[in-house]
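Quarterly update from the structural biology core.
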Amino acid sequence: MVVQAMRGQLKKKEKQVDKLLDSAVAERFCRLAERVDSLRGLRERNPGNTDSDSLTESINVVINNSISAPVAMEKLESAWRDYSLAQEKLKACPTKEQLGDLIDNRNKVRGVLAATVESFLQEAKCLPVRQRMDKLKEVSSSLTAVFGPASMEGDVGEQAFEQYYQWRTQRSRLTSSVRDGTDKALKALCTWSENVGKFFCLSAKTVVGVNDIVDGVNELLKQAEINVAKELDSPLSVGEQNNHETKVVSNAFHKVMQHIQSEQSLLSDIMEKYLLNTKFKGEMLQWQNASPTPDSLFSVKKRIRSLRAQLRWRQVEEASLEEAEDFDLTEILKKKEEIAEIRNTLFQEIGQERKEYMKLSALAEGCCPELPLLYPEADIHSHMVRHNRSPD
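Predicted structure, tokenized:
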């Protein structure tokens, strides 16, 4: 009787243990499943560090595709300095007799400048300046939207990109290591689950034995729990950064924005020089075969003198007709029409004279500062002074 009672108690305890074991195993799998589901959602929301991905892509665009200054640009600046100096000497020349050598020197320097301008224009024309400006503007706007406005004050150091890439590589390696550990642990658990399915499938032969589904199952489950928890709790999974990492990313951002600003300044300079030198080339072609002269001005002045003389004579004739005893109204009206016509023509010629002076003044200010001294009879200097365009 005692033995039977002991057997009954033992069987009861076995049932209780089985029940507890069933409950514990189910609870572990349930918790693990919930955490795996959370991890799946986390990976979907954070496939990678998108902010640093954007920064990395921007750095590559800015550094690897940058446009350098045209080779002829430095020579161009030197040629312009020499040309400007030659022009200043012409402006400062006190006598007409000294102009010859200065003009010859200026023309020689201008020839060098014209050749350099042509080289620069050919080189600059092949550069995708406008497209690059648009791309830099796009990258700048994109980065500003993510990181906010950048301060251009201070230097973050030449090592900013190198430090960023080192951090990025290390972070990527650590993230991959954590994820690989999780994937490996869950894959091992999946393999065990497949073996369980094969073992309990009575309709098919299997090489899976009892030991294959019993040995190490607790360790597999434990390892999966540890790795899933490690990835869920890792700051790498949600893109969190400590102060040092934040500074590294911030320095790289400010550095790339400084590069963008510097290249934008260069590209603007190239575009400005291209327009300026294209205009200069046009002026040079205009006076390539002949230097400008005030001949057109002299012709206008001659016509003005003639018209004024005609006007005075017609006015005398009009006065004589009005004072005559046999007053002829028809003839007087005819004379008045002639006077009005001459006066209108005179006003037009005076307007043309003004245009000629403006043209010569612009030439004297620009490519031909010798004109006032070379043609004193044209009185170009006085016109420039009256209109605040003095060459002095």
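The chain has three domains: 59-145+252-286, 155-240, 294-388.
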